[in-house]
Write a structure and sequence with these properties.
The protein is 20% helix and 13% strand. The protein has 123 residues and is of the alpha+beta class. The chain folds into 3 domains: 31 residues, no CATH class; 44 residues, no CATH class; 41 residues, no CATH class. A hairpin with a 7-residue loop joins strand 3 and strand 4.
Length: 123
């Protein structure tokens, strides 16, 4: 993969409000990991019905805010503008794999690749 192929999906999620906390009037913030059951009614896509326990007799309605239709037209920003420099200790680990001491990487092409990776000398 090239540097241009890495994109920043976290900033896209923030732009389209994907990770906005939803609130129920009756219970406050919704912890999505605690939801036990979800029911979606195709006739009313403005809400989903949830149960936080299998013992709940009734569903609670969670209102959904629809995103604008142009949400998929938003550009996804690049994650990094250039190559990332490896920390010095990670670079040492990788180059050690190419040396006689450990010598896991035997192919000269791969050795040159690992030894040529950009890295910080001070980190």
């Amino acid at each position: 993969m090239t540097t241009e192929e890495f994109v920043d999906y976290i900033s896209l999620a923030e732009k389209i409000r994907l990770r906005v906390n939803r609130k129920l009037d009756s219970v406050g913030n919704v912890d999505w990991t605690k939801i036990k059951e979800v029911m979606v009614n195709k006739d009313d896509v403005t809400v989903i019905d949830i149960k936080k326990s299998h013992h709940d007799a009734e569903y609670q309605q969670l209102p959904l805010q629809r995103l604008p239709p142009d949400v998929l037209q938003k550009s996804i920003p690049k994650l990094n503008s250039g190559q990332i420099k490896l920390p010095a200790n990670k670079n040492k680990d990788l180059t050690d794999l190419c040396t006689d001491r450990i010598r896991v990487v035997r192919d000269k092409t791969f050795q040159q690749f690992f030894k040529g990776l950009p890295h910080d000398w001070n980190n």
